Amino acid sequence: MTKPAARxxxxxxxxxxxxxxxxxxxxxxxxxxxxxxxxxxxHAMAMSGQRVLLFDADLGLANVxxxxxxxxxxxxxxxxxxxxxxxxxIAGYAPGGFDVVAGRSGSGSLAALDSAALEGLLSALDSAAxxxxxxxxxxxxxxxxxxxxxxxxxxTLLVVATEEPTSLTDAYATVKLHxxxxxxxxxxxxxxxxxxxxxxxxxxxTLTRACHVFLGRTPPLxxxxxxxxxxxxxxxxxxxxxxxxxxxxxxxxxxxxxxxxAGAGPAG
Length: 268
Hints:
By secondary structure, this protein is α/β, with parallel strands linked by helices. The chain has a single domain (21-263), classed as 3-Layer(aba) Sandwich (Rossmann fold). 44% of the residues lie in helices and 17% in strands. The chain is built from 11 helices and 8 strands. An 8-stranded mixed β-sheet has the order 3-4-2-5-1-6-7-8, sandwiched between helices. Helix 1 (34-47) crosses helix 11 (249-264), helix 6 (145-153) crosses helix 7 and helix 7 (165-181) packs across helix 8. It is globular, with a radius of gyration of 17 Å.
């Protein structure tokens, strides 16, 4: 990918019009099931007939390919280095019916990209979006500048949290920065690993109240995902949950979230 001339970038700069919708999945911290959720959401969307590209937007701790059992010849690192174009790095994942751009583990982080390289990558994603109904970005954990820029680029940001207090604190920070970077942007909450749906709703209500009071923003709860031992079984076997355990609680919850995204459409 040819890098444009170096320049500073703004986190809130305008996004070009795209034919497909873009959804970024963020968490603020690791260990909340963000990547598993992104994969399962991509599968649920593909099963509903949508053309989906799953983009592993993490050069440092990427693991979409590991969870799927892939060994890609080209990945995001190849694109960033200029050895391949983004189109070259797109690979079909037949078991799920969606396409994947794998990340790169152990080679630094997107935070190390200069602004021109990052903007060039997003420009390539703009072009790729025309071929898909949904481009789904699995963002790296944390709130570094590159993660924030990619979150603000997306039409919709899904912030994944759990019932743990540290997760809520990090989710709040993610929403706060997104509100600053993208005033009026479409941010929604997903609570994973819930003991019960009602417990997940209470967790979301706590986070929503804090956002309303301190940010003047009330991100809606998109859905809750119940804690389910079938998830770990699928991950260990590098299998898709919706295929291996299609009727388990977590599968049904993610399918409901996918349907809500399709029905709601982008806000703002």
